[in-house]
Amino acid sequence: MVWPVWLAIQGLILAIGFTPLVTRAIPPQPPVLCNEKACLVSNSYGVWGDRKECRVSGIVYPTTEEELRVAVAQANQKKQKVKVVTGFGHNIPKLTCPASPSDSAVVISTSRYNSIIDVNTKDRTVTVDSGVGLRDLINRVEEAGLSLVPSPYWEGVSIGGIVSTGSHGSSWWGKGGAVHDHVVGLSLVVPSGASDGYAKVIRINGPDPLFNVARVSLGLLGVISKIKLSLEPGFKRSITNSFKDDAGLEDEFLAHAQKHEFADITWYPSQHQAVYRNDDRVPLNSSGDGINDFLGFQSTFILVTSGVRASEKALESSRNVKGKCAMAATTGGYKKLVANGLKNNNIIFTGYPVVGRQGRMQTSGSCQHSPATTITSSCAWDPRFKGLRFYETTAIFPASKFRDFIKDVKKLRDFQPDNFCGVDIYNGFLIRFIKASGAYLGQSEDSVVVDFNYYRADEPLTPRLNQDVWEEVEQIAFFKYRAKPHWAKNRNLAFLGVQQKYCNFSKFITAKKQLDPQGMFSSDWSDEILLGREITKGDGCAMEGQCICSEDRHCNPDKQYLCKQGLVYAEARVCRYSGTQMFRVGLTL
Description:
- The protein has 15 helices and 27 strands.
- Residues 1-23 and 581-589 have low confidence and may be disordered.
- It is an alpha+beta fold and 589 residues long.
- An 8-stranded antiparallel sheet has the order 20-14-16-15-23-24-22-25.
- The chain has a domain at 5-19 and 236-358 and 381-493: Vanillyl-alcohol Oxidase, Chain A, domain 3 (3-Layer(aba) Sandwich).
């Protein structure tokens, strides 16, 4: 029986926006689970690993740098493939998935290699073990009266994972919003010859030729063991969200990024609304003890998230666009009411501006840290409880091309605004800013990053409502405007031709061959990402973004999803529903 739309709306409000004062939650499960026969590597969203494609014979848990070196040496002697996992597992592509067969691969986990956080207040630096979690690092730095300036929005990551995948916050000021641009030194464990004990530790700092190679390395050069980051004197931030019509978005984003140090913009296309975050540092003695407890990262009742998922599936199967729009409007209203999780004085939202210490005003993720005393709530996407399941597309544009991207998305939106409600149920289009970097796999110019989440079906061949819209937006970004994909996010098609988008890509490959000549840290899965290889096309391959359709069979013709050209970007090829809905809005392509 399909839930009434109003019940779905109420459930979604609870799932995304409401957390009771007292909840008892279970933390996410580790990314590697073992039995007496083998270990299974997966990610925390449950979108891969569930089909046992990432099975290995064992896992190693080093606690010191020497134990880490020994683990690499033993794998080198045995000629095993190696992949590194952290204690979190939030990467979306299969970068941590080793090659098969299982007896030729080993996984090294840094989840227990997390004891050292050495703050040097005189030099304003911190040196950490690569397995240290971001929240633990931030707290230690703040205790010392200092602040880590770049801060990704989600704290369920390790410092090694952050740096190796190019993770970032939002800023064009100073050194910028990318964490790797605040690295001043790091150490790598790499394979070596018998005279070095089959593995060695190399120390890399700014003048070293390997510095720009190693700062964003995707785990493909070796195992990061230590990272040294620059810090600044402790400061506070003041945040005010400004709600505007989106009519001037393409002309205003640039000035907004230049005016505010930690600016971002959240765009809700179906609602014609843009939320500009006016976010700047203020002196440490400024009044306020605010915190950013982002709604989407709070613990949520398990019964609520599973109910919301059931409701969204019902709306999908009945092709109820209006139901999704009602969800988007109500959710947006609630987010505005509670400032999307910003809290004055660490309690509730009482009004703007919200002022608080740097370490509490950007990075959040309270669902990661709840005590597992009684299972009543969890992170909303925890796959054990059939909660939210979604795609995340992240495209990184040269600032000069972003205006035209916005205009194209608006053209697509204006064909039928209701078709964009699905993305506005989640977080709309999150627009952030990262500065030009010297890292070979970083951004070579000041860039604008767009993230958007949207519904993902339980089974790969199940069609999604308005899926052609998101496929066209995706192809406009990555192929028309040649945006770069975030290395730890995206569907596989986003990486097609990625090597041509980096001017220093060949230098990275040359250095990789020098450090890892046998390809110990490579796999077929990571090669799909790094080298942008398209799989052999087969029936249904476009439904999960494994390929771009060129024939109807690449979609799902049995469900009336056929391969069609884009509505705004004619070169796009998307899986579009060919039933009555398209004729109602006058689109016959």
